[in-house]
């Protein structure tokens, strides 16, 4: 039995034993998942279980999301969360905006999901922050000066669905935003400014008013090729929008389908290897993690059969899917969103765990998942970032939540 070193903010180390078996760790190909549905990628090493060391970057509640970018253009990835960015490698905090304090037993922060993108194409990474569901989404212009606050710009005054995501619908290599608008009752995508130095995003509706997944507290949103036409579609738990080749087409066709209960990020992949796309989802505020097998409907439509993966922990409000052990099959990372509703959800006061689930596909197409413990005193926030942050060739896991800002370094 191998022991996992857990490094805390006071630099002491406590021992935690999460795996029943661990093999020598070899090089992983790093991939990034930020709440967007990036396709799973593989490693040069097959069948290797990753080992992690925990470091608390910041021990106060400032955000329920976090992300990375080379903020100061020094070649290292820095961490951004809430009103701070943390400078690598020592994680010195710098203010993005005026700091606030939050009491997680009574309420929420003003930072739910965080993304990064050079919005105005000036060569400096900017910061995108989603406020409380239904409130605004903003981008902050990187001034290139560590001691300055960043200028704030409004992208949209109401951003709905609790898993807003980044996508690249037009294939130009720049990230767009996808979320609902409760006032219009429409799912919308927003393009960053096309011109250099621009500050205004362009929003477009994809569907008719009052369609599913667009309400203030809607749960479940994803991006994947459901119908196998080579174009990724927009997924909600009530169905999916078929993304057209011509993005200016309106409205996009919505296909109703039953993809389960209120969930967080949704991912499409052919889990059983039968040639069509299945869907992964996880309960945002109750118990349950599922994969939904694509099957023919009674009238030839695309339908889904639900399969349970786990019910041992609740509030899986953030999920990242990718190949964790280099076997060319996608795994996923998730955990409990600590104090999601001040402990009032089912299982809300149980230990804030974080796990990765290993996919095993049998020769007959059978699907099973093995759960691996990463930690039992951190949990997740609204999304999870998994990528090689420190450039050592191993996958790291970044979370911002009510426990603070926490990294699990791959070892």
Order of helices and strands: EEEEEEEEEEEEEEEEEEEEEEEEEEEEEE
What strand line-up does the widest sheet have? 19-18-17-16-20-21-22-23
Tell me the major beta sheet. Answer: 8 strands, mixed
The total tally of domains equals 1
Strand content: 35-45%
Tell me which oligomeric state these chains represent.
single chain
Number of strands: 30
Unreliable stretches (pLDDT < 50, length at least 5) are: 1-45
CATH topology, what is it called?
Methylamine Dehydrogenase, Chain H
Helix content: under 10%
CATH top level assignment = Mainly Beta
Q: Number of helical segments? A: 0
What is the overall shape? globular
Structural class: mainly beta
Q: Secondary structure elements and their pairing?
A:
Layout: E1 4-7, E2 13-16, E3 52-58, E4 67-69, E5 78-81, E6 84-87, E7 92-95, E8 113-117, E9 126-130, E10 137-141, E11 151-156, E12 160-167, E13 176-181, E14 186-191, E15 202-205, E16 221-224, E17 233-236, E18 239-242, E19 253-256, E20 265-269, E21 278-282, E22 287-296, E23 302-314, E24 319-322, E25 331-335, E26 354-361, E27 367-375, E28 385-387, E29 396-401, E30 404-410
């Amino acid at each position: 039995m191998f022991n996992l070193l857990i490094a805390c903010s006071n630099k002491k180390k406590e021992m935690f034993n999460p795996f029943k078996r661990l093999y020598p760790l070899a090089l992983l190909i790093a991939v990034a998942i930020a709440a967007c549905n990036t396709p799973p990628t593989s490693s040069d090493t097959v069948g290797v279980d990753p080992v992690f060391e925990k470091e608390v970057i910041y021990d106060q509640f400032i955000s329920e999301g976090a992300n990375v970018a080379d903020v100061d253009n020094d070649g290292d990835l820095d961490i951004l969360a809430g009103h701070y960015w943390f400078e690598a490698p020592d994680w010195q905090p710098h203010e993005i905006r005026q700091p606030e304090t939050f009491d997680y037993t009574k309420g929420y922060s003003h930072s739910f999901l965080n993304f990064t993108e050079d919005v105005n194409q000036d060569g400096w990474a900017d910061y995108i922050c989603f406020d409380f569901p239904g409130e605004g989404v903003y981008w902050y212009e990187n001034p290139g000066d560590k001691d300055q606050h960043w200028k704030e710009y409004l992208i949209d005054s109401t951003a709905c669905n609790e898993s807003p995501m980044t996508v690249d619908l037009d294939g130009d290599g720049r990230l767009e935003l996808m979320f609902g608008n409760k006032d219009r009752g429409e799912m919308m995508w927003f393009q960053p400014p096309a011109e250099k130095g621009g500050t205004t995003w362009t929003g477009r509706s994809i569907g008719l008013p009052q369609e599913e997944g667009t309400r203030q507290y809607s749960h479940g949103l994803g991006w994947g090729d459901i119908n196998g036409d080579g174009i990724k579609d927009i997924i909600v738990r009530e169905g999916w929008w078929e993304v057209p080749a011509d993005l200016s087409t309106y409205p996009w066709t919505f296909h109703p389908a039953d993809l389960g209960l209120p969930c967080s990020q949704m991912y499409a992949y052919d889990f059983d290897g039968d040639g069509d796309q299945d869907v992964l989802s996880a309960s945002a505020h109750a118990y349950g993690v599922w994969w939904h097998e694509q099957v023919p409907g009674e009238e030839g439509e695309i339908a889904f059969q639900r399969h349970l993966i786990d019910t041992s922990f609740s509030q899986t409000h953030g999920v990242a899917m990718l190949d964790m052990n280099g076997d060319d099959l996608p795994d996923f990372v998730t955990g409990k969103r600590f104090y999601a509703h001040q402990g009032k959800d089912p299982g809300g006061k149980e230990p804030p765990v974080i796990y990765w689930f290993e996919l095993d596909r049998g020769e007959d197409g059978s699907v099973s998942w093995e759960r691996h413990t990463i930690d039992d005193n951190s949990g997740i926030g609204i999304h999870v970032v998994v990528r090689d942050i420190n450039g050592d060739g191993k996958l790291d896991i970044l979370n911002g939540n009510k426990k603070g800002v926490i990294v699990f370094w791959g070892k």
